Amino acid sequence: MFLPLFPPKDTSGRLLQKIPVNARMPLHDDLLLNGYYTTRLWIGTPPQRFALIVDTGSTVTYVPCSTCEQCGKHQDPRFQPEMSSTYQPVKCNIDCTCDNEREQCIYERQYAEMSSSSGVLGEDIVSFGNQSELAPQRAVFGCENRETGDLYSQHADGIMGLGRGDLSIVDQLVEKHVISDSFSLCYGGMDFGGGAMVLGGINPPADMVFTNSDPIRSPYYNIELKEILVAGKALNLNPRVFDGNHGTVLDSGTTYAYLPEAAFAAFKSAVMKAVLSLKLIEGPDPNYKDICFSGAGSDISQLSKSFPPVDMVFSNGKKLSLFPENYLFRHSKVRGAYCLGIFQNGKDATTLLGGIIVRNTLVTYDRQHEMIGFWKTNCSELWDRLNLSPPPLPLPSGLDNTNSTGTMNPTLVPSGSPGYNAPGEIKVGFITFYMSLSVNYSGLKPRMTELTHLIAHELDINFSQVHLMNLSTKGNDSLIKWAIYPAGSANYMTNAASTEIIHRLAENRVRLPDTFGSYGSFEWSIEPPPKRTGWLQSYLVIVIALSVVLILGLSAFLGWLIWRRRQESPLPYERVESVETVVLEQELQPLK
């Protein structure tokens, strides 16, 4: 059989190529409760976890550094470069801005709401979690030394920059040829939160609506918006109103939508005419003049009966239909009341479309073909809607492939299963993990028993299962290695028990009092039950054999002793059967 020298061609004449893998990652938080959506990234070796805001308007990914002089208290501990064996600072070069000593590259970013971030640039291994087909990659990121405004006060740790630029995480992965030049975001709907993100390409649904996105027109992800319809009627506007300044920009890091002055006035007027049956009320915050309505009811599935449909029409004639949840937010003080989530963009001529516009919408940023696609869907069911198998649900680690459990996919045992391992299950001998604390040794030592009890409580296990393996300190920071052993006298944990423990560790659900300062757990590892070495097995065989020989020898010796004693004993009397058989004893005769 002869094989062709060249790969087959498709019908278009292009060589068939292997499609790069992608990173499928869950989104967390809620657009209106938190003001953003976050995903999880792990940086360094061992990995340090961070909750980062997904932001298409930023071009740098950055996290607070352990050396930060002005950083707020965030969700996770700060990044510790000295704890990562793979971290390297980006040295000063002609392609970057250098520090005053001209030793290391630095970055600085300022945002419209007057917040800012600045720090140094470093390079390390970045991991994307267990749902990702994409292996961990080296990438450049910012290590913050100063943050102000909302960046200082927010709960999230930092920003994941998805914009166009050399430092963007997307650009870096594309340059390495590990993903195609595309990514997608899907935000959850009103009252649901969460969502999904894909770094890399996907097969777009047949009815996805695309519009052009010109990278030369603006450094941001712009779309060609030409018209807005409210209740089926076009707003009386010049189409050029949506093309001022940066044009119409799609920004995932912005919560609401902002229109130029003329466009907002027309939109507000059209909506108010369409909701005459509702009552106009004051907004939840007296400092803002929100436009709010009461009387629509609390069931969001029925909002379309009270509020008009809105359509955005692109230059190619395609339309993106918006549901009420795409331009309204709940009134926080009045039940059944809603407020407009679209505002005037001051005197700025840019049309800025934030996350509210694309709730329950899959948005694909096809940078390779300079297009952005929209597809209305339920983002909590995205994989089913795309006819994709859901991401694997192994024990969550988020660790890189160097972790000993990186390729383990244990069978998940239902809760309440008996304490034995079914065929195919993995026997878990014990679980180890590291915990960092901003407490020095003298302050931590007298509280170790308290800390052990707290960990047992947070992991929902017995106090006796938590063992301290190692404790090291440096200045005011401590690093502890813990081990979780099976309960009682068991030799291993069930998959159900170990899965629950690791879920709690990976999701950072171990909460400690503020008196322990900043803390975090990372680098969990599954260890099998201890195995006997070959020498130990041989030793046991010899011991068992000698024991058997000794027992047999003692048994033989005791048997011989019993036999000798019986030989030396007088014969026993025979049992008398009857009186007649008795021989009468003769009387003694006197001696003669």
Automatic annotation (TrEMBL):
Keywords: Aspartyl protease, Glycoprotein, Hydrolase, Membrane, Protease, Transmembrane, Transmembrane helix
Parts of the chain that traverse the membrane: 539-563
Superkingdom of the organism of origin: Eukaryota
Family: Belongs to the peptidase A1 family.
Keyword Transmembrane helix carried by entry: yes
GO MF term (any one): aspartic-type endopeptidase activity
Catalytic residues of the enzyme: 55, 251
Protein name as it appears in the record: Peptidase A1 domain-containing protein
An example Gene Ontology biological process: proteolysis
Domain Peptidase A1 span(s) in chain numbering: 37-375
InterPro entries named in the record: Aspartic_peptidase_A1 (IPR001461), Aspartic_peptidase_AS (IPR001969), Pepsin-like_plant (IPR034161), PEPTIDASE_A1 (IPR033121), Peptidase_aspartic_dom_sf (IPR021109), TAXi_C (IPR032799), TAXi_N (IPR032861)
